[in-house]
Design a protein that fits this description.
The chain is mainly alpha-helical. The protein is built from 13 helices and 4 strands. It folds into 2 domains: 36 residues, no CATH class; 191 residues, no CATH class. Strands 1-2 form a two-stranded antiparallel ribbon. A hairpin with a 5-residue loop joins strand 1 and strand 2. The longest helix has 33 residues. Keywords: Amino-acid transport, Membrane, Mitochondrion, One-carbon metabolism, Transmembrane, Transmembrane helix, Transport. This is Sideroflexin-3.
């Protein structure tokens, strides 16, 4: 039986309850857990859309980022690829949000439009400022726009968490309440990890391409520029994506003393010995 099939038949909650198919080896069980965890949301249990999973980050981002870095000179292409990038980011940010509180279609639409508009406006504004600067500086406009857009896109797509909070649990996974403070900390950590994830892929290839485009090899074969840039971005992302996702644990913790007074009092009333609570920060 294949690992994906096992994962479908024996999801994480059943395995936790001790329901294991006869003859299933420990290696198969762990493989099934990895597959299940990569495809299903840890709070809602819903299956995450394919391009919203972390496993899709490298192939999707290498294509989009490579094109942003290649077609940065003309305004229409800047607008198009920034829109594509932020549309993809919106799917990823929503798919990997924390908590199980639903968000309305209206809230989702407003967040998407605001995040995408902010990203495009940032890219165009920075592009206009670099017109009279060396070409190499212009190559870094996409990174600056992406970094700024992450500060807009992620909080907006996860605004519901900032309004009602996210679930916090004890060490055993018992839900204790909802915390806006934990949501703020989790979103901040995700913003930092996403910006760090973009640094190698959007800072190293421009320098290399700026050098290569001055050589006769690429001057005679300009059509090689885009695939070469995409390949360089992909190489960087292979290492940067898992490294930056691991900067902060997905199951993060926060001291009870830092929580909201009401929630802190509620937790103390339930169990005065609890000093640290845990939450899913999202990815």
């Amino acid at each position: 039986m294949s690992a994906p099939r096992i994962a479908c038949l024996f999801p994480d909650n059943l395995c936790r309850a001790g329901v294991v198919t006869p003859g299933l080896t420990e290696d198969q069980l762990w493989r099934a857990k990895y597959v299940y965890d990569s495809a299903f949301h840890p709070d809602t249990g819903e299956k995450v859309v394919l391009i919203g999973r972390m496993s899709a980050q490298v192939p999707m981002n290498m294509t989009i980022t490579g094109c942003m870095l290649t077609f940065y000179r003309k305004t229409p292409t800047v607008v198009f690829w920034q829109w594509v990038n932020q549309s993809f980011n919106a799917v990823v940010n929503y798919s990997n949000r924390s908590g199980d509180t639903p968000i309305t279609v209206g809230q989702l639409g407003t967040a998407y439009v605001s995040a995408t508009t902010g990203a495009v406006a940032t890219a165009l504004g920075l592009k206009s400022l670099t017109k009279h600067l060396p070409p190499l500086v212009g190559r870094f406009v996409p990174f600056a726009a992406v970094a700024a857009a992450n500060c807009i896109n992620i909080p907006l797509m996860r605004q519901r968490e900032l309004q009602v909070g996210i679930p916090v649990t004890d060490e055993a996974g018992q839900r204790l309440g909802h915390s806006v403070t934990a949501a703020k900390q989790g979103i901040f950590q995700v913003v930092i990890s996403r910006i760090c994830m973009a640094i190698p892929a959007m800072a190293i290839p421009p320098v290399i391409m700026d050098t290569l485009e001055k050589k006769d090899f690429l001057k005679r074969r300009p059509w090689l520029g885009a695939p070469l840039q995409v390949g360089l971005v992909g190489f960087c992302l292979v290492f940067a994506t898992p490294l930056c996702c691991a900067l902060f644990p997905q199951r993060s913790s926060i001291h009870v003393s830092r929580l909201e007074p009401e929630l802190r009092a509620q937790i103390r009333q339930q169990n005065a010995s609890i000093e640290v609570v845990y939450y899913n920060k999202g990815l």
